[in-house]
Amino acid sequence: MTRTSTRYTDHETNGGPGMERRTGLIRTLIALSVLLFWAPVSTAAAAPGAAAAGGCGVLAPGASAAAERAIAAACAEVDAGTWYTWGGGHGAQPGPTYGQVDPSDPEDSKHDPERRGFDCSGLVRHAYAKATGSDLLNGVASQQYYTHRAAERFTAAQGLAPLLPGDLLAWGTSKDLHHIAIYLGAGKMVEAKESGTKLMVSDVRLNGSYFGAVRVNTGQVTGHIHQTWGTGVWTKAEPFLKAARVYAFPHSTTIRVQCQKRSEMVESDGYKNDVWSYLPDYKAWVTNIYIKGPAWLENVPECKS
């Protein structure tokens, strides 16, 4: 810019025929130079923290500060070349751990016990723990998707349009959610994909097994929060035993109860109860036998329909 301005002054001083034409041309060139110089600065200012093309980072506006920090934590592991390891990231505290041999894929995962890293849900757990300073999402993919900390949920049919960076994408079925990743925006996600690979940025796979997404509430949780007990406890589409299965709690799980009602009597593990609770995060029912507390939960309203 300074050199162009100096040349312009020199032309003015020299004078002579054609000076106006040269002056006009030089002014045009100066204007173009200013435009070219300013455009990238404006773009960068409009999207602070955005990753370079093809990189790992926040790729769209609208994310919360906590979501941006979670993405930064996950991307730091990508940049560090951290490995996928089956079972990795599920130690007593969030963070990389040595993996295990995956019984369903022993050949590809044979080196996982030698590598410190994350599986898909281990990475999500680590990212949001780093973002918030609290172990909010300690669990497998299904527990993270069905978290009682859900601020909003999105179906597969809604696609990517309503999503924001930091939302969690899940694949599988209601009975078996087997993969989870963190959305970056612009159709990209960061994930721990499979044994034999390192953590990576990928195109979101909106294939037949894409289940939906959840936005994590990192603030105060609202609603009636309770804890289940037992292992392999199935939730049901309706409040009776022969209803379709929705999801099985692998172990004690924190749940949000919307309401409760009397329905089919259930006898199990030495208990007998006809009260069922509706769980809005699962869109399913569970017998109150497996919810810690009295047979009729205190302060939880009765379902009216």
TrEMBL record:
<keyword id="KW-0788">Thiol protease</keyword>
<dbReference type="InterPro" id="IPR051794">
    <property type="entry name" value="PG_Endopeptidase_C40"/>
</dbReference>
<feature type="region of interest" description="Disordered">
    <location>
        <begin position="92"/>
        <end position="116"/>
    </location>
</feature>
<dbReference type="InterPro" id="IPR000064">
    <property type="entry name" value="NLP_P60_dom"/>
</dbReference>
<keyword id="KW-0378">Hydrolase</keyword>
<protein>
    <recommendedName>
        <fullName>NlpC/P60 domain-containing protein</fullName>
    </recommendedName>
</protein>
<keyword id="KW-0645">Protease</keyword>
<dbReference type="InterPro" id="IPR038765">
    <property type="entry name" value="Papain-like_cys_pep_sf"/>
</dbReference>
<dbReference type="Pfam" id="PF00877">
    <property type="entry name" value="NLPC_P60"/>
</dbReference>
<dbReference type="GO" id="GO:0008234">
    <property type="term" value="F:cysteine-type peptidase activity"/>
</dbReference>
<comment type="similarity">
    <text>Belongs to the peptidase C40 family.</text>
</comment>
<feature type="region of interest" description="Disordered">
    <location>
        <begin position="1"/>
        <end position="21"/>
    </location>
</feature>
<dbReference type="GO" id="GO:0006508">
    <property type="term" value="P:proteolysis"/>
</dbReference>
<feature type="domain" description="NlpC/P60">
    <location>
        <begin position="64"/>
        <end position="222"/>
    </location>
</feature>
<feature type="compositionally biased region" description="Basic and acidic residues">
    <location>
        <begin position="8"/>
        <end position="21"/>
    </location>
</feature>
<feature type="compositionally biased region" description="Basic and acidic residues">
    <location>
        <begin position="107"/>
        <end position="116"/>
    </location>
</feature>
